[in-house]
């Protein structure tokens, strides 16, 4: 017996717009397959991420997307043949395969190319989904068609003169596949005399949704996941005053700021939510070292800055969002742990209360370092930054003493830099007043990076000269154990100081 092939539409972006059937199939699948470009991000996968667990994932990576090539169609035919063979191997082994597709699988969907190659050999079911056209109309609050009107759906890849002819000859239209075709589409709408009626909808139903009069949209800001809509003319008020009011309402939509945690370094630490937020952004803002870790996207603007201008960086990002841009502010690790989330939220609360702000968590440096040696943070622990740039050193010392007196493990962030060379020694001496000299200290440097080193030493043997800004220290409590080289753990049960 073979497995069953399912082509499952997962809707335009909001996971709550998936059908019950789609959710059930994704949850119960043996294999979930999805398409993506070479950057590895998949919009479809981000929609279903909450329903993924033990399923085998098959990432179907396009060999080309918008790049030029001598044999574009030949490259895609070979890709689909290879992808179909991969899925056939699972089906032959009796595994059910769910191929997820944005919107609807048979509406400009990549799934159809697999369907044509596999449906004659295996049991197959196609599950429809909410299309981007339906979602765009809902976002606009405008009917697509009424009564005897005709709706024409057009790909933006058509030649401009053909687009213009078809747009002039229909009552209502939806134009798909914008992105790099946007300039030609706008020209075709103008030629057809339909530009003033046309609306633009980007990433409908998601937190990054944007609507605007199509004539006012910057071509450089247009992603592939956008739709041009010429809605129904029935009952439409087309007077100049009404059009101006509609344009003002759509243009007044704010963008948003999403503060994204990139994790400690490795790409596989990036969460699907963070990946989706980065993919949806118009602008990426952050410390230059962190923006360099974001996969290049020719549609996006990158604004890199120095590491010591958090408030200015936050205000800059919020200004962009107030102008309608979707902005990702990136931080290493988790943005809420000694990073940009606090700065953005603080500045927004004071000066930008109208701008939406979201925080997407990431794997913190403390979690990454702890995982390298076992579970040194297995019981209550604290996080303290040794930097005295934003707080007096006497506050740092009091907090170190309080944590040590409470017998908790502690993760020490920002332990040293070129201008701060004495804090590690002072912190060690404070902790030695409360801790046994043999207390294990985990020294994690550049974890997940190319120069990663992780060592464990006794607290008394901690050498300040071996610690720099790329290092995180974890100092154990009295119950933390070091049973073998490279293994440290703090038991979940604590019976009091030894």
Question: Can I get a quick summary?
Answer:
The protein is 31% helix and 22% strand.
Describe the protein in words.
The structure is a single chain. By secondary structure, the chain is of the alpha/beta class. The chain folds into four domains: 125 residues, Tetrapyrrole methylase, N-terminal domain (Cobalt-precorrin-4 Transmethylase, domain 1); 119 residues, Methyltransferase, Cobalt-precorrin-4 Transmethylase, Domain 2, CATH 3.30.950.10; 107 residues, Tetrapyrrole methylase, N-terminal domain (Cobalt-precorrin-4 Transmethylase, domain 1), CATH 3.40.1010.10; 124 residues, Tetrapyrrole methylase, C-terminal domain (Methyltransferase, Cobalt-precorrin-4 Transmethylase, Domain 2). Helices cover 31% and strands 22% of the residues. A five-stranded parallel β-sheet has the order 3-2-4-1-5, sandwiched between helices. The mean pLDDT is 90.
Helix percentage range: 25-40%
Assembly type: single chain
CATH superfamily of the largest domain: Tetrapyrrole methylase, N-terminal domain
Under CATH, the topology of the largest domain can be stated as: Cobalt-precorrin-4 Transmethylase, domain 1
Count of spatially separate domains: 4
Task: State mean pLDDT (0 to 100 scale).
Answer: 90
- Uncertain runs are none
In angstroms, what separates the terminal alpha carbons? 62 Å
Number of DSSP helices? 15
For this entry, give a set of tags.
498 residues; alpha/beta; Methyltransferase, Cobalt-precorrin-4 Transmethylase, Domain 2; Cobalt-precorrin-4 Transmethylase, domain 1; 4 domains; 15 helices; 23 strands
């Amino acid at each position: 017996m073979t497995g069953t092939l399912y082509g499952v539409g997962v809707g335009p972006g909001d996971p709550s717009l998936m059908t019950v059937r789609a959710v059930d199939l994704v949850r119960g699948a043996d294999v979930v397959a999805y398409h993506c470009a070479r950057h590895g991000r998949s919009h479809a996968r981000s929609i279903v991420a909450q329903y993924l667990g033990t399923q085998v994932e098959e990432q179907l990576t396009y060999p080309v997307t918008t790049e030029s090539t001598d044999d574009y169609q030949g490259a895609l035919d070979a890709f689909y043949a290879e992808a179909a063979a991969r899925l056939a191997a699972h089906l032959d082994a009796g595994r059910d395969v769910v191929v997820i597709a944005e919107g609807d699988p048979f509406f400009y969907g990549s799934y159809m190319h697999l369907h044509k190659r596999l449906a004659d050999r295996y049991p197959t079911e196609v599950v429809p989904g909410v299309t981007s056209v339906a979602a765009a109309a809902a976002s606009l609050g405008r009917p697509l068609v009424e009564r005897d009107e005709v709706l024409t759906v057009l790909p933006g890849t058509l030649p401009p003169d053909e687009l213009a002819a078809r747009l002039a000859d229909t009552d209502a239209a939806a134009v798909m596949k914008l992105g790099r075709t946007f300039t030609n589409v706008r020209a075709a709408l103008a030629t057809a005399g339909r530009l003033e009626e046309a609306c633009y909808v980007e990433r409908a139903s998601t937190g990054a949704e944007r609507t605007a009069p199509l004539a006012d949209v910057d071509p450089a800001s247009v992603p592939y996941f956008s739709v041009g809509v010429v809605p129904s003319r029935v009952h439409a008020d087309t007077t100049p005053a009404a059009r101006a009011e509609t344009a003002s309402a759509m243009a007044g939509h704010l963008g948003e700021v999403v503060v994204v945690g990139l994790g400690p370094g490795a790409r596989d630490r990036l969460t699907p939510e963070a990946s989706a937020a980065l993919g949806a952004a118009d602008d990426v803002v952050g410390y230059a070292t962190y923006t360099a870790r974001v996969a290049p996207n020719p549609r996006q603007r990158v604004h890199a800055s120095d590491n010591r201008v958090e408030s200015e960086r936050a205000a800059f990002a919020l200004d962009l969002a107030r102008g309608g841009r979707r902005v990702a502010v990136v931080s290493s690790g988790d943005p809420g742990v000694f990073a940009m989330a606090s700065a953005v939220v603080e500045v927004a609360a004071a000066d930008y209360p109208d701008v939406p702000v979201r925080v997407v968590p990431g794997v913190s440096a403390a979690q990454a370092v702890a995982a390298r040696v076992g579970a040194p943070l297995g019981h209550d622990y604290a996080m303290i930054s040794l930097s005295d740039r934003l707080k007096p050193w006497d506050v740092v010392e009091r907090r170190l003493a309080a944590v040590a007196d409470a017998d908790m493990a502690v993760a020490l962030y920002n332990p040293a830099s070129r201008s701060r060379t004495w804090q590690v020694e002072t912190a060690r001496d404070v902790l030695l007043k409360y801790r046994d000299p043999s207390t294990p200290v985990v020294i994690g440097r550049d974890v997940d990076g190319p120069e990663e080193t992780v060592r464990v030493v006794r607290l008394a043997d901690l050498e300040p000269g071996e610690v720099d800004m790329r290092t995180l220290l974890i100092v154990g409590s009295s119950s933390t154990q070091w049973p073998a080289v490279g293994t440290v753990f703090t038991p979940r049960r604590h019976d009091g100081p030894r």
